[in-house]
């Protein structure tokens, strides 16, 4: 059995960004020489997800709108720090991304 392992990086912009990886993934599979098999694609970042669907600007905007309705970017999220269970600190950015990641993972698990 032939196994090929290849990694690549890419950048995103803003709170919600969509990057079409289709061409890059096709190149990796093409170079592998494998005709039948599985491709395992993994996004290791805590707030990143993979969505396997058509890349269409209208759908991208619909997903952005849905996430903003479900988890508004202006909402104040409270996260407890494990260091001191009696102290609650305001960490709006981290809470925002963690909760959005949970919702996105439910609808598009990777």
Overall shape: elongated
What percentage of the residues does DSSP assign to strands (E)? 5-15%
Which percent range fits the helix content? 25-40%
Order of H and E elements: HHEEH
Q: How many domains comprise the coordinates?
A: 1
Overview of the molecule:
The protein has 110 residues and is mainly α. It has one domain (22-107). Helix content is 37%, strand content 5%. Strands 1-2 form a two-stranded antiparallel sheet. The radius of gyration is 18 Å and the shape is elongated. It starts with 21 loop residues before the first helix and ends with a helix.
Short account of what is shown:
With about 110 residues, the chain is mainly alpha-helical.
Present the secondary structure layout.
Blueprint lengths: L21 H11 L24 H14 L7 E3 L7 E3 L1 H16 L3
Antiparallel strand pairs: 1-2
Tag the structure with descriptive keywords.
37% helix; two-stranded antiparallel ribbon; 3 helices; 110 residues; mainly alpha; 5% strand
């Amino acid at each position: 059995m032939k196994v090929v392992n290849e990694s690549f990086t890419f950048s995103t912009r803003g709170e919600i960004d969509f990057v079409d990886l289709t061409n890059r993934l096709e190149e990796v599979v093409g170079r592998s020489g494998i005709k039948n098999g599985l491709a395992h694609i993994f996004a290791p970042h805590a707030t990143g997800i993979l969505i396997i669907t058509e890349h269409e600007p209208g759908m991208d905007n619909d997903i952005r709108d849905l996430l903003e309705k479900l988890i508004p970017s202006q909402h104040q999220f409270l996260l407890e720090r494990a260091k001191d269970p009696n102290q609650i600190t305001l960490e709006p950015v981290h809470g925002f991304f963690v909760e959005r990641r949970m919702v996105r993972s439910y609808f598009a698990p990777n």
